[in-house]
Amino acid sequence: MVVLLFVAVLASFVSGTYPSLTGESGHHVAGVRNGRVDPRLLGATPFATPGTRQNADGTYEAFVVARAFQFEPAVLKVPAGQPVTIHVTSADVMHGLMIVGTNINTTVIPGQVSSFTTTFRREGTLDVICNEYCGSGHHGMISRLTVEVGPP
Ligand code: CUA
User: Fold this and answer.
1) Where is the Cytochrome oxidase subunit II copper A binding domain (predicted)?
2) What digits encode the pLDDT tens for the residues 91-140?
């Protein structure tokens, strides 16, 4: 697991994203302690309702669950020109999350939450793909991210 964690962090730095596996970014997520979450109990966390939300302070957070062989939500809507902190975890096995056309590329490990903050500048639709072999449906594990003007 230490090796996997190292690879995840290394991949994240290489790709220019910054996961807060230890929660040092200050984003408190209910049910998540020090970047760890029980994959059997995602229903008791914000991952129970995947998608983007606006917090009381105006910031945006998005929760994404990877499971064989899909991402939830199937279409993640984010606002254009606003920083959004994306949290992703796995409900089962190790997956990857890569947003095609960006430098976002992180390993998704059951029991851990990878978080990163990014701003999508332009409206449009991007493909989100799993780039970590996860089983027979791996190659079909694709979802969409839509960047929209206005609240998601
Ligand atoms: Cu999920 Cu490959």
Assistant:
1) 55-152
2) 999 999 999 999 999 999 999 999 999 999 999 999 999 999 999 999 99
pLDDT one-digit tens code per residue, 19-47:
443 344 455 677 677 789 999 999 999 99
- Distance from the alpha carbon of residue 128 to the mean position of ligand 1, in angstroms: 11
- Is residue 3 classed as helix, strand or coil in its secondary structure? helix
Residues whose beta carbon lies within 6 Å of some atom of ligand 1 = 69, 95, 130, 132-134, 138, 141
**Closest residue to atom 1 of ligand 1, CA basis:** 95
Beta strands in 12-123 (DSSP E): 51-54, 60-67, 70-72, 75-79, 83-90, 95-99, 105-108, 114-119
Using the mean position of ligand 1's atoms as its centre, give its distance from the Cα of residue 44 in Å: 24
Q: Rounded to whole angstroms, how far apart are CA atoms 90 and 95?
A: 7
| Pairing of the two strands 105-108 and 95-99 | antiparallel
Report the nearest atom of ligand 1 relative to the CA of 95.
1
